[in-house]
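Section 5: illustrative case.
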């Protein structure tokens, strides 16, 4: 994210000189945008303080588990139309990175090696994942005839995901020292369809006839499943609910202007 901000600062400096050579830039009316960015993560998704792990009928250990969002890539494809100088309409498909990482801690143990193996491998898990956000919304821009101008947007739509935010697995070793996957939390139906909202703003830089660069900071509000408490034993689905989370993203975009209004030249 710091890299994107640095790139945009350098771009603004470069375009300051071009503003001296043109009284007004061409004003984009219809454009297609491709953007690439990064999410800042979203903090802790869920945490379970005491999860039983049954080794055998006479031996039960206890684990503490946490799942958090981590930084991941964000890809945006959008189309925008401005019938006038300020207010425009936008449709967008966004591949929103919702990657997670797990943490495991042994709370109580009777010394079982399986517990140590399971907790260690859960703690090493970094789960990649992306969800598709399909939305439409409004954009408001200021000083759109200038080569460098700000804008703000609001979008609403749906978030489609097939990744599980609940399923939790690790690895244990058999008596033959062969690795075997063990499911601590099961989730056989991870697909969800949830509402999606985003609020953002940024700056557009005109870099040539028919082309623009934009830098945008955005707050993506999504609803995702979370674990509410421990399961009775490993291999079961724990109690769950859905929770709203704010995922911040920074995106650098490239605009292809399909229709424009010419600006005035010296």
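Designed sequence:
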């Amino acid at each position: 994210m710091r890299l994107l901000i640095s790139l945009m600062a350098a771009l603004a400096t470069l375009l300051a000189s071009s503003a001296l050579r043109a009284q007004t830039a061409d004003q984009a009316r219809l454009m297609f945008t491709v953007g690439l960015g990064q999410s800042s993560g979203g903090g802790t998704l869920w945490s379970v303080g005491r999860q039983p792990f049954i080794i055998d009928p006479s031996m039960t250990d206890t684990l503490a588990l946490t799942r958090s969002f981590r930084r991941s890539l964000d890809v945006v494809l959008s189309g925008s139309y401005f019938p006038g100088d300020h207010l425009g309409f936008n449709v967008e498909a966004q591949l929103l990175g919702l990657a997670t990482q797990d943490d495991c801690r042994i709370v109580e143990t009777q010394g079982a090696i399986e517990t140590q193996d399971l907790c260690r491998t859960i703690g090493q898990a970094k789960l990649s994942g992306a969800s598709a956000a399909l939305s439409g919304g409004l954009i408001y821009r200021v000083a759109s005839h200038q080569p460098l101008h700000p804008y703000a947007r609001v979008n609403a739509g749906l978030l489609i995901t097939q990744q599980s935010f609940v399923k939790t697995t690790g690895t244990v070793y058999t008596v033959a020292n062969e690795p075997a996957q063990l499911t601590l939390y099961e989730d056989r139906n991870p697909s969800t369809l949830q509402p999606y909202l985003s609020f953002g703003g940024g700056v557009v830089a005109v870099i040539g006839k028919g082309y623009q660069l934009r830098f945008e900071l955005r707050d993506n509000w999504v609803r995702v499943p979370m674990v509410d408490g421990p399961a009775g034993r490993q291999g079961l689905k724990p109690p769950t609910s859905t929770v709203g989370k704010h995922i911040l993203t920074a995106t650098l975009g490239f605009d292809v202007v399909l229709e424009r209004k010419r600006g005035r030249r010296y």
